[in-house]
Design a protein that fits this description.
Layout (H helix, E strand, L loop, with lengths): L3 H28 L5 E12 L4 E7 L4 E6 L4 E5 L5 E6 L15 E4 L5 E5 L2 E5 L5 E6 L17 E4 L2 E6 L14 H6 L3 E5 L5 E4 L21 E6 L4 E6 L4 E6 L5 E6 L20 H9 L2 E7 L4 E7 L4 H7 L15 E7 L2 E2 L4 E2 L4 E6 L3 E5 L10 E11 L1
Antiparallel strand pairs: 1-25, 2-3, 3-4, 4-5, 6-7, 7-8, 8-9, 10-11, 11-12, 12-13, 14-15, 15-16, 16-17, 18-19, 19-20, 20-21, 20-22, 23-24, 24-25
Organism: Algoriphagus aquimarinus
Protein name: DUF4221 domain-containing protein
Keywords: Signal
């Protein structure tokens, strides 16, 4: 027979070990407690101009915004407090001019260049707006735009600069698709070698993409948001409907990893056959009601910000829409959510949407937001706000 005192002592040791283990686990959880973030408005400015302007890019080296005036067709260099420091007109014919098309893309390039993307051409200007390089590019869709729709990202290999250009950078690829071949190829970037002028399509849909799960298409929902991280030599990309952020190596554009996205609410609708008219009710439903990823930005360190539209029901749309005031759900901040990713992991708490359009990531965990214009009268200025991601 075992000694009862010995048995009790062994039981005591076991209970002590269990308690110690629980204490350690709880301690680990306490030290690994998830950070809680908030987006706080920290600054604002306005750009005084007779017509609306858009800001497309920011240079931390020059401390300048690069913008475009809507009606004058001028390229604008804007200070951090909103003052127009330089106004350059390059629309028209002649040396250093880019012709009669409006730019569809505008941004800073390497070594102080200014990149102007046109429907069939890409031009790099120096700081004095003399042309350094000019290349024709293929385009299945000649976009006409009043103002640039985005900025063409660049990366470098040795002494060669590569640009990712093309209409589907800025618009849903639906407009390019008329057959199954179009669905398979025209969602890609065009990679332009600025040294040789050579172009090729890169980064197709991944095999597990929702867009490859059906022969049908999702009109208005075949766009993407992306950025190039020059520090880590990566391209980060999210499609409108996919549930992961894809990270590609540069310069070979091989898939490196993916980051899962968990949406708290993501109302989806069925795709339609290729060739369905844009006036079809099912296409209108996708455009008006369906959820979508909207904007992907990179802040300091390895912090990503993703804004998405939750989607709404038909009854919600009907109750909010009127002839006098048409309702556009994807621009309604009450139906938008903002997700934070830290070191490739999603922070569980989502943030509410922000009034205005998220434009650019700025240094010090800040985001540039363009405020909505007043619909009641024409303003001779454009307002911008700056939000900062902070720990609570």
């Amino acid at each position: 027979m075992k000694n009862p005192i010995y048995s009790f002592f062994n039981l005591y040791l076991i209970l002590l070990a269990i308690a110690s283990s629980c204490s350690t686990k709880n301690g680990d959880l306490a030290t690994q407690k998830e950070e809680i973030y908030e987006l706080v408005k920290v600054d604002s400015f306005q750009v005084d101009n007779f017509t609306r302007i858009s800001i497309l890019d920011y240079s931390s080296e020059e401390k300048l915004y690069l913008g475009y005036s809507l009606n004058e067709d001028d390229i604008l260099e804007i200070s951090e407090n909103g003052e127009i420091l330089n106004r350059v007109h390059r629309k028209g014919d002649g040396p250093n001019f880019y012709g009669t098309w409006n730019p569809i893309g505008l941004g800073f390039g390497p070594n102080g260049q200014r990149i102007v993307e046109l429907p069939f051409q890409v031009i790099s200007y120096n700081k004095d707006y003399g042309i350094e390089q000019s290349h024709r590019i293929m385009s299945p869709l000649p976009i006409r735009a009043n103002t640039p729709l985005g900025r063409p990202p660049y990366y470098q290999k040795n002494d060669t600069t590569f640009l990712l250009v093309g209409p589907s950078n800025y618009l849903t690829a639906t407009y390019l698709i008329h057959n199954l071949e179009g669905k398979d190829t025209l969602q890609n970037f065009y990679q332009l070698n600025m040294l040789t002028g050579r172009t090729e399509t890169v980064v197709p849909y991944e095999a597990n993409s929702i867009y490859n799960s059906t022969e049908n298409i999702y009109p208005e929902l075949m766009g993407k948001s992306f950025f190039i991280d020059l520090d880590s030599n990566e391209l980060a990309l999210v499609q409108n409907l996919d549930t992961e952020i894809l990270i590609y190596n540069l310069p070979d554009l091989s898939l490196k990893r993916s980051i899962p996205i968990i949406h708290s609410e993501f109302q989806s609708y069925s795709p339609v056959p290729i060739g369905t008219p844009f006036s079809d009710e099912n296409v209108l439903v996708l455009n008006r009601l369906a959820a979508r990823n909207q904007k992907l930005l990179k802040l300091d360190g390895n912090t990503y910000v993703l804004q998405y539209f939750t989607g709404i029901s038909q009854s919600e749309y009907d109750s909010r829409n009127s002839e006098e005031k048409p309702y556009i759900g994807q621009f309604d901040e009450s139906e938008q959510r903002i997700v934070i990713f830290k070191n490739d992991k999603q922070i569980s708490t989502e943030l509410a949407g922000i009034k205005g359009s998220l434009i650019l990531a700025l240094p010090k965990n800040r985001i540039l937001v363009q405020e909505s214009e007043n619909p009641d009268f024409e303003e001779e200025f454009t307002r911008f706000s700056i939000y900062q991601l902070k720990n609570k």
